Amino acid sequence: MKIKFNKLILTAALIGIILIILFAVFQTRSPVLIVIDESFINLYGTKRLRNQTISNSLVMFRNVKTVSVANDVSDDMIPFAVQNFSSQPYCVLFPMRFAKSAEIYHALNPDIRVVILEGRNSEDINTSANLFRYKTDIETDFYKAGIVAASIKSPVESVNEDSDDVVIKRYMIAFLEPLFNRLHGTKVRSSFLKGINEDENPPEVWFYTAFSDYYQILGLSCIILAGSGAEYLENTRGIPVILYSWLDPSLAPANVILIIDDSPWAQAVQAVKLAVSGEEEGLIKSKFLIPDAEKIDKTILRKIR
Question: How many domains does the chain have?
Fold first, then answer.
């Protein structure tokens, strides 16, 4: 018994030493920095941001730190805020709106990997060489969203007066932000409809860029809000909604069945991998957040994960 007890003590001591060594290595590794502004934190949620930071840190086995800046901070001040966090970070991620700051930071720190995350609303911009630029894989995102949307069965029954048949009709509408629609509308619609048409009874879909263009359609089975129309989220009257947003799922109305998140935190791990491998450009899939998995068929969940 004493020998077994001593072995347990020795095993516990070895595990403790290993954990201490791993923790020491973790703390000494150069961090990944993500630049965001205060409005992002309000939308994303403080608790969620903390949890995602811990998750990304564990996956990359290095600290991921938030560089939070004021909403109205000037472009040339952000690089100094980044330097205050770490003089030698492993990688620094800048959202597209801070592209100018990313260029300034890179000019001051040419040996550090600097990534611009372009998101969905990305236009061609001139940036300096050696900056990594990654876009959201919008075609895959909309294809998967189409699969989910088509699976929502909320049909309207209309009787064909010329026969005894009951015709089942389903309709859904998608709102695309105007700039996004101009840049990617054709590809987005094609990808979304590809996912829709995998259903044996695909619904009819109408695309809009503003609620002012939308006329009343009764019996909608789903509404897709991709940038445009989010201000009407509270007025969707219980209709299932697929929302493209960085919004904290805990703040979303109960009828939001899927949130498609292409925030810097959702893309951080893949972005760092691409940068380390030396790929100057690339596509990164969004994270599909499901507030209530019971509302989506398990077969569909497997398809989108």
Answer: 2
Return the closest-CA partner of residue 136 out of 291, 264, 38.
264
Q: To the nearest 10°, report the CA torsion of 153, 303, 235, 37.
A: 180
Residue type for 118, please?
E
Q: How much is the mean pLDDT over the chain?
A: 85
Q: Token pair of 112, please?
A: 């550090």
Interval 248-267: pLDDT, tens: 888 888 889 999 999 999 99
* Whether residues 177 and 105 fall in one domain: no
Secondary structure E strands in 121-255: 132-136, 156-159, 166-169, 171-176, 204-208, 220-226, 241-244
277 in a structural domain: no
Nearest to 254 by CA among 268, 264, 241, 265: 241
Residue-range definition of the domain harbouring residue 172: 138-262+286-304
DSSP conformational letter for 159: E
Euclidean distance between the first and final Cα of the chain, in Å? 49
- For residues 68 and 150, state if they share a domain: no
3-state secondary structure of 85: helix
Is 275 domain-assigned? Answer: no
Rounded to two decimals, what is the model's pTM?
Answer: 0.86
CA nearest 35: which of 114, 127, 112?
114
CA-based torsion, 24, 28, 30, 32: positive or negative: positive
Decide the pairing of beta strands 287-289 and 256-261.
antiparallel
